[in-house]
Amino acid sequence: MRDEKVDPQFESLLAYLNDNRGLDFTDYKRSTLMRRVQKRMSQVRVDSFSDYQDYLEVHPDEFQALFDTILINVTSFFRDKPAWDYMAEEIIPRIVQDRSSGDLIRIWSAGCASGEEAYSLAMLLAEEMGIEKYRRWVKIYATDADENALTQARHAHYSAESLKSVPAEFRDKYFEPNGNGYSFSTDLRRILVFGRHDLMSDAPISHLDLLCCRNTLIYFNREAQDRIVARFHFALKETGYLFLGRAEMLLSYSDLFVHKHAKHRIFAKVRPVQAHRRMMVLGEVGELALEDSLAYDLSLKQAAFKATPGAVVVVDSDGNLATANDDAMALFRLEDRDVGRPFHDLELSYRPAELRSLIEQARNERRIVRGKDVPYRNVNQEPIYLDVLITPLLDEGGRWLGVEVSFQDVSERYQLRAELERARHDVETAHEELQSTGEELETSNEELQSTVEELQTTNEELQSTNEEMETMNEELQSTNEELQSMNDELHQRTDELDQTNAFLQSILASVDVGVAVIDREFQILLWNYRATDLWGLQADEVVGRSLFSLDIGLPVQDLKTPIQETWLKDNLIGDMIMLDAINRRGRAIKIRITRFLRQAVESRPQYMVLLMNEEKA
User: Fold this and answer.
1) Span 185-211, pLDDT tens digits
2) 138 vs 153, 156, 241, 374, CA distance in Å?
C-alpha cells in the first residue's frame, strides 16, 4: 500500500474535528480528504489548515458545511444502466426465487446519499414480485453518514431533471406529481427504513439477501476497506450478493467473495467450510447412576477419547473440568489432579484464549462457537496457532450437559497463508496502485460532477433571481406611476383646500361676531378673530380643547345643557340664549349665543356653530 504524506497541520485539524464534533475521518484517504477540505477552505478564503481550524472555532456553523463538502453525495436513479439491467434480469429474480417461505427479503443500501439507489432497488423488486408481495415480503434499509442527505431521501421528492434516467413506465407507476417535481409512492415508501450509519464504527445490518454499496469504498484507505468488506461478508446470508460501484474491485478478497459478473461488480459470498470434530464424552444414561457428581465410563470410549489426536477437553454443566485427552494434558501442562477442578481456576480457562466467555456464549445460544488463529507457545516455547471449537453437549431432551473444547493446530496452515499473503503482496501492491489511481480518477469525476451540478444549481438560482428582479422592477414602475398619479391628485386637492381655507378665513375675518365650531365631543375645531377679541385667547390656544375647559369671561358651563339639547335637534337653525359675561377687558357685557347645527350628507350633524354677539347697551 502506498504511504500517504502526513501533514501535521492537517492531522491536527482532523483531531480537532473528532474531538469537537465526533467527525472521525481517520480511515479516509488522505489525498481525497485533503482535496475536499481545501475546496471548502477556498470557498471561505482561508489559506492554511491551522487558520481554517481557527475559523471553525469562530464560526460553528461551518462544521456542517465542511461535512457536506467532504461527503460527496453524487448519485442518480439506475446509475450505470447496464449493471442495473443485469440486476433486474439475473440477480433480483434469483433472490426472489430463493426466498424461503415466511422469510423477508432484506436489502441494505449502504452509503445511500439522497436515496436514488434505494428507490431504484425498490422499483426492481416491486416489478419482479408485484406490489402486494413487495409490501408484504420486502424490507429495505438505506443508510448514510450524512444526515442532510438522509433528510432529502426520507422526503423522497425529486425534480423532473433527476428522473430522466427512470423509464417512463416506472415514473408513471411509482412516482406521483408533487409541485415542481415528483414524489416516490407513499405506500411503497413505507418499506424503506432510512437511518444514519457509520460503516467503520456501527454494527452491520445482518441476514441480507443483497447489499448495495456503490462507489463508497473508494474514499477509505486499505485497512478500512479490509474491515468494511469483512463486515459485508458477515452481513450477507450464505446466498447473498454484494453490488459495488464500477471503480471498486475485490481481487484481494477471494476468500470472502467470488465474481458473479466482474464487469458489473456483482459478487457472491464464499460459503465457509464447516468441518469440525465432535467426540462423545459423557457416558450414556442407562444403568449408570449419577450421584453428587457425574461419573464417566472409563472403558473403551474413554480410552478412545484419550487417544484422540488434537487437544480436547470437556467441561461439565457445573463448570468443572470433566476430562481431557492426552494431547490436551501435554499441550496445556495439565495433571490428573486438575480433572474435577473448577475450570475457571485453571490457566487453560484464559490462556491461550478467554474460554470462559466463549463457553458462556455457547451455553446461552446453544450453538457452536469458534475462535480462529489463536496464538500460543507449546511445551518447547515454540509459537503455534490454534483454532478453538466449543461444542455444546446436550442430552436427547435438550438438557445442558456441558461443552467440548477442541483445539486444532493450524500453524502449518497459518504459515502457508502468511507465505501466500507475502506471495500475493507484490501483485496486490501493483493492483492497489492501479485501483487507487482508478479510485482517485473516479473521485475526481465525482467531484467534477458535483461541481457541475453546483454550478447548474447556482445558474438556475441566478436566473430565477434575475426574473424575480425584473418582475419587481415592473411592479415598482407600476407603483411609481400610481404614486405619481396620486401625488398629482393630492397637489390638486391641496390647492383646492388652500383656496377653500383662504375663502373661509376671509369670511370669518369679515364676520363681526365671535365664531366657534365644536364637534360632538365638545372639542373646538375653529375659533375666529372676533372670538379672540372678545375673550383674549388665540385660536392655537383653544383649537383641540374642550369648550367647557376654557377659563374665560363667558360662563361656558351654562352652555352645557343648551348645547346638549341642541344636539338632539338634528337640524336646528338659529337657537339663541342670552348670558351675562365679562370680556377680555374686564367689562361686564351681555352676550347672545346663537347655535347652528351643520347637517352632514346622509348622516347625523357632526358639527355645531356657535355665534357670540355682544349686545349693545
Assistant:
1) 988 898 899 998 888 888 888 899 999
2) 18, 18, 16, 40
Residue 479, domain member (yes or no)? no
pLDDT tens for each residue of 96-137 = 998 877 788 999 999 898 899 999 999 999 999 999 999 999
Joined together, the cell numbers standing for residue 463 give: 436566473
Same-domain check for residues 328 and 407: yes
CB 314 within 8 A of CB 405: yes
* C-alpha grid cell, residue 471: 418582475
**Is residue 410 within 8 Å of residue 374, measured between CB atoms?**
no
Q: How far apart are the first and last CA of the chain?
A: 128
Distances (CA, A) of 346 to 352, 405, 570: 12, 14, 119
- The letter for the amino acid at 478 is S
Average pLDDT, integer, range 591-601: 72
Contact 46, 55 (CB under 8 A): yes
Structural domain boundaries enclosing 148: 81-269
CATH number for 512: 3.30.450.20
pTM of the full structure: 0.48
CA dihedral 283, 286, 289, 292 (to 10 degrees): 50
Strands 181-184 and 607-615, how do they pair?
Answer: unpaired
Q: Which residues of 61-71 are buried (b: 16+ CB within 10 A; e: fewer)?
A: ebeeebbebbb
Question: Is a pLDDT exceeding 90 seen at residue 617?
Answer: no
Residue 4 pLDDT level (bands cut at 50, 70, 90): low
For 513-539, give one letter per residue: b (16+ CB within 10 A) or e. Answer: bbbbbbeeebebebbbbbbbebbebee
| Domain assignment present for 447 | no
Q: How many residues does the chain have?
A: 617
- Residue 309 burial by Cβ neighbours in a 10 Å radius (0-12, 13-18, 19+): exposed
Q: Residues 383, 375: contact at Cβ < 8 Å?
A: yes
pLDDT value, residue 278 = 31
CA-to-CA dists, residue 564 to 366, 521, 551, 567, angstroms: 105, 10, 20, 5
Exposed / middle / buried, residue 126 (Cβ in 10 Å: 0-12, 13-18, 19+): buried
